[in-house]
Amino acid sequence: MINSPIPENSGETVLAVFSVSDLDSGDNGRVMCSIENNLPFFLKPSVENFYTLVSEGALDRETRSEYNITITITDLGTPRLKTKYNITVLVSDVNDNAPAFTQTSYTLFVRENNSPALHIGSVSATDRDSGTNAQVTYSLLPPQDPHLPLSSLVSINADNGHLFALRSLDYEALQAFEFRVGATDRGSPALSSEALVRVLVLDANDNSPFVLYPLQNGSAPCTELVPRAAEPGYLVTKVVAVDGDSGQNAWLSYQLLKATEPGLFGVWAHNGEVRTARLLSERDAAKHKLAVLVKDNGEPPRSATATLHVLLVDGFSQPYLPLPEAAPAQAQADLLTVYLVVALASVSSLFLFSVLLFVAVRLCRRSRAASVGRCSVPEGPFPGHLVDVSGTGTLSQSYQYEVCLTGGSGTNEFKFLKPIIPNFVAQGAERVSEANPSFRKSFEFS
């Protein structure tokens, strides 16, 4: 046995040098050596009776890690005699193999609303090398999508490749995601490989049906009008609902849960259409309230209830009659309207009063200013009452004028106000002017 193993990546290498001899003489003492032809080794003769065992090239430990070589030594005598000698060659490992995953891609399934730290699956890789060269560690590789919060979704056990969801997953928010895992050996230099992991989130029936129509948000109910002349099967309305789940968890069915008058209306199970079940008559109540149950096909099933209001009318021109439930809301609206009208009237009255007060104050101030600047009847040549002087051009007592001088004026103007007999105003003014020339410059009749 050769003491030192041969590295598998070594080229042509001398494994052993040995000599052989035969005590006979002549051809009987001449010998030759040989080995099997199917081995990656050969014997190279050197000097007489000396041989060298040489490897043909690089060996592959992963294919064969040990060789048992039988060296056959034969003389050239007659008969030929031979001897066999065995040599064991060990091939040492070199880190020339990267870890290999058992699958190039993995698909794992996890149901939504899982508990944190749940084991969702494993990946596995093996290395054909030996020793530390075959020890594999696992890791998560950076995701190709930078927006994927991979570090908050999953983790991997570095020693065994087990994958633990880190938080509860929601199918409605994330249906699937994928990432890559790496497997690295501990050789020098280390070699690695990677595999794709795709995680599919399975839907759980965690959403109840949601009614889109009619609205169920507590607002004033929407009333469907149905003519009393409607035939059986008349389409009253349609309940529209959706479910946030998928698959059979989102398959919805409808049924009439409660009605004011059973047997008058029916609901189609698969599409939510509400139709009349028979002919209507005058004896049927005008107002009806229906409760429709919407149920999904999940396990366990979830449901919601839709409330409908139906009003039977003789014709669509008949005015709308509010339902009792809507009366309080209408009364509140009317009361609010009254409040608004009263408030508007109050504001308008206050504004009008303010305007009148402002005008009155301005008029009062103008009146005071006018009284301060007003002139009195001049004294001196003008008596309080003009005396009638016949034939002299003076005014008689019956022809009186209210005369005032314009105060503060430097033009000595005077004014005749309210003539008693207008026909003689001009003549009287002329005579007054002649009697007192200082007041001739201007005059005015009122």
Automatic annotation (TrEMBL):
GO molecular function: calcium ion binding; cell adhesion molecule binding
Record membrane topology: Single-pass type I membrane protein
Domain Cadherin: 11-101, 102-211, 226-321
This protein's record includes keyword Signal: yes
GO BP, one annotated term: nervous system development
Family annotation (InterPro entries): Cadherin-like_dom (IPR002126), Cadherin-like_sf (IPR015919), Cadherin_C (IPR032455), Cadherin_CS (IPR020894), Protocadherin/Cadherin-CA (IPR050174)
Cellular compartments annotated: Cell membrane
Transmembrane segments: 338-361
Keyword Transport found: no
UniProt keywords, alphabetically: Calcium, Cell membrane, Glycoprotein, Membrane, Repeat, Signal, Transmembrane, Transmembrane helix
Entry's Gene Ontology cellular component terms: plasma membrane
Pfam family, one: Cadherin
SUPFAM superfamilies in the record: Cadherin-like
PROSITE patterns cross-referenced by the UniProt entry: CADHERIN_1 (PS00232), CADHERIN_2 (PS50268)
PANTHER family from the UniProt entry: CADHERIN-87A, PROTOCADHERIN BETA-3
Protein name: Cadherin domain-containing protein
Organism: Pan troglodytes (Chimpanzee)
